[in-house]
Amino acid sequence: MESTTPTLSRKAQIDQTATALFRQRGYAATSMRELAAALGIEAGSIYSHIRSKEELLHRICFRVADEFMAGLRTATVDDLAPAAVHLRRAIDSHVRVLIRDTDASAVFLHEWRHLSEPALSEFVQLQRGYEAAFRDMIARGVADGALRTPDPAFATLTLFASLTWLPNWYRPDGKLNPDQIAERLTDQLLGGLATGDHLPT
Amino acid sequence: MESTTPTLSRKAQIDQTATALFRQRGYAATSMRELAAALGIEAGSIYSHIRSKEELLHRICFRVADEFMAGLRTATVDDLAPAAVHLRRAIDSHVRVLIRDTDASAVFLHEWRHLSEPALSEFVQLQRGYEAAFRDMIARGVADGALRTPDPAFATLTLFASLTWLPNWYRPDGKLNPDQIAERLTDQLLGGLATGDHLPT
DNA sequence: TTAATTTGCTAACGAACGTTAGGAACCAGT
DNA sequence: ACTGGTTCCTAACGTTCGTTAGCAAATTAA
Fold it and tell me: How far is the alpha carbon of B28 from chain A, nearest alpha carbon, in Å?
């Protein structure tokens, strides 16, 4: 009954520490010797667990990407629901992923460009598809009158801007929970959701 | 070869090329040899014009910071105008700086953390003051009823998020000019302004 | 007990890094 | 003709980089 077992494998510890360092100092500016020091071991020892520095970045970026994609899929499985509902669910899911692991999210958002081919192209493609899905939901929501904004394309940009900025300010002990953040975003950027009254103008 | 006279001094060329590279690949991932190659010279030659790599980053960051601060000062010199007008002018100025040099702005926004002390602290302090000024303008605009938002603090975050995101999508040949971008931002994030406000250029 | 796996070390590799020294060509103004 | 500034070169410096090889201790599985 070891209640204090190391719940994280060494490899997972490396991933976690690397994530924090990559976020704090940037991927390119983080050396393997720094990472090793943060783990309390020597640089060479890391290579008993991973193949390369970039493998660390790759795993972080694509794991977070998977989480975003899975959330989007879950939010939009029921084709019957109106676009605005899909969008609200998708934003909520996105915010929850961001909040669950702000470090990994920040790395995902800012350090992916240091991936090399072919991973880089694969990543960009995932990203493009994800953004396109949001653009579509917003466009359809505006088209059917549930969302109100003078410029759907601009609203999409603003939404992604706000989502990307979130890891910069979010603190777990803040006053807003994930659901409230998602609500604020939807309200502020898209005139809220249809609550019975939907009237352009 | 030189059909056009070099309107830019060599030092200015280095600054410009470094700005583009720092933006594209990141400060830490850009080597002096890369920079030299982009300029068509050898790495050592750069040091006839600058003292260090960080000096390049320092100059870029603080030059853009100066432009932002100057714009804010100009936008708010007339103490009589309502806060909402100050804000609208400040946003407009900010957008114009971002657009005038998107490369330098992107470096300013994303690479400043690679500054070392004491420049780093100085930079962060400038940044804090700048953001506080916007927070105040928004708060006062909401207080006097000119701006409408359910959560002024959140609106401030969203505004900065959108401003920070701008260099990521802005293209000079796009359909929105600076003034329209500033207008969209104010409208979308802050319920617009009282009508009839005209901007100094 | 034995075998395999996990984990870590020391020492070093070749490559790339930022930077410097010292010299040479060019150009401007005197 | 001389001077001072600008520009760039080659060659190298000491350092740090990501990574590997080879070995050893500890832990786990059989």
Answer: 6
Cα angle vertex B31, ends B105, B166, to 5°? 20
User: Domains in chain A, please, with CATH?
Assistant: 53-190 (1.10.357.10)
Asked if B28 and A26 count as a contact pair (C-beta separation under 8 A), the reply is yes
Q: CB-based burial of residue B148 (10 Å sphere; 0-12 exposed, 13-18 middle, 19+ buried)?
A: exposed
201 residues of chain A, pLDDT tens digit each: 333 335 578 888 999 999 999 999 999 999 999 999 999 998 989 999 999 999 999 999 999 999 999 999 999 998 888 998 999 899 999 999 999 999 999 999 999 999 999 999 999 999 999 999 999 999 999 898 888 888 888 889 989 999 999 999 999 998 888 888 888 888 777 765 444 333 333
Nearest CA distance, B37 vs chain A (angstrom): 20
Find out whether A12 and A56 touch, Cβ atoms under 8 Å.
Answer: no
Cα B34-B37-B43 angle, rounded to 5 deg: 75
Strand C interface, B 44-63, C-beta < 7 A: 44, 46-48, 51-54
**Across the interface, which of B29, B155, B157 has its CB nearest the CB of A169?**
B157
Q: Could you tell me how far CA A177 lies from the centroid of its own chain?
A: 16
CA A146, CA A188: separation in Å to the nearest integer?
Answer: 14
Helices (H), A26-118: 32-39, 53-75, 83-100, 102-110
Amino acid type, B129: G
Q: What is the CA radius of gyration of chain B?
A: 19
